[in-house]
Amino acid sequence: xxxxxxxxxxxxxMEKSIQHLENELTHVRAGKISPAILEGITVDYYGSRLPxxxxxxxSVVDARTLIIQPWEKNMLAVIxxxxxxxxxxxxxxxxxxxxxxxxxxxxxxxxxxxxKRAHHIAETARISIRNIRRDAxxxxxxxxxxxxxxxxxxxxxxxxxxxTNKYIAVVxxxxxxxxxxxxxx
Length: 185
Description:
four-stranded antiparallel sheet, Topoisomerase I, Chain A, domain 4, 59% helix, two-stranded antiparallel ribbon, Gyrase A, domain 2, alpha+beta
């Protein structure tokens, strides 16, 4: 049935919005350092662009220290420049064999900034989910022309709204968890 296909497509799109939200929230720092802060940073490796984690071993030493050990020593300076250019808010320290990233303790003001950023990311996800709902309802209304009963369309709209509410609640749950993580000293 066409209504089920519309519902399934909307569910898949909402699931992708949640995955994107989770990915974006990993980039919001929360007191402890994570290799995720290096995602999106690429280095020139013999003429091709590679993510840092493919040109070096990245490991977490403790809650505030990340060590990047390149596979080849000549990559130290290249990786260091890429991190500086990415402006992640941490200055890399090159000791000649490894690059160390020390995350300074977060101030209360900085924590509030990160919470605001997390709220912005969550609101973007909510908007995305609502847009998916709008598109799905428009598709359902087009089915009236194909002689689908009004009751079936109303039930489909109700199902889409329930799906939307479920995914908005998931967004709120992720936001609460991230907010708690950020504000924990």
